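Repro:
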Amino acid sequence: MMENKESLGKELQIVKQWEKDQKGLWFWERLSRLPFKLLDKLTPAFIQNKMGVLLDEIGSYIQNGGQYLTQEKTLLKNIQKSNPSLPIETIDDIKNVPIQQMITMSEGLKNDRAKIATVQGASTGFGGIFTLAIDIPVILGLSLKTLQEIAIIHGYDPNEKEERIFIIKCLQFASADIVGKEAILNELSTKHTRNNKSQEMISQLQGWREVVYTYRDQFGWKKLFQMVPVAGMLFGAFTNRSMIQDISDAGMMLYRKRRILEKLEQVELLEHPDN
């Protein structure tokens, strides 16, 4: 079922409006402007070490997916149930699913993962600093798996290294400040060109450590307030939920934009096959 240019254009405008809305500073971004030396002084050494491990795990994820690489079989079955008229046996088949169906599935995934993150943050926040080290790798894994499933819902395969890099960019975007968001959007815009090669995306990464520094710093600020026992339970629930929601929104919109633009290209080719 081919969607028409008008409906795809409307969805593209929604994504572009979302991109414009990313210009506002909010509480966490204001905090991020404080000196990071202060964060280093306030954050215990073992938490800093855990953040270092987090960076290494992200590097491993980019290279081979590691322990975070999601299994797509169950998701493919669920997508097939929602679209019985379409034969869906591989991730590539999902690209034919209507955009509205992709939106519905993504929103459902976002809500489910936000609930999990809320419970996770509350349980680990209860013990404050003593349980925070447990929360860090868990929320990272949940973030990466959520973005991978959003990728699959839009017909992109996270088994490919290029897609894992795009996923890390989505992760970075969710925690970036205004300048960082604009830079990432400019970088990702090349992803939508017809002649783009995977090597171009990889070269834009400029070293995976540089890509995740912003994520690490923002993550550190959010987790800093979770160190207080008992009170950290409420803060942990709120921060984990908001993080997963922000990460899901970034992944949904950035992947949606890619799929809409590719669908528009298909429509153009059908309307003007000689071009």
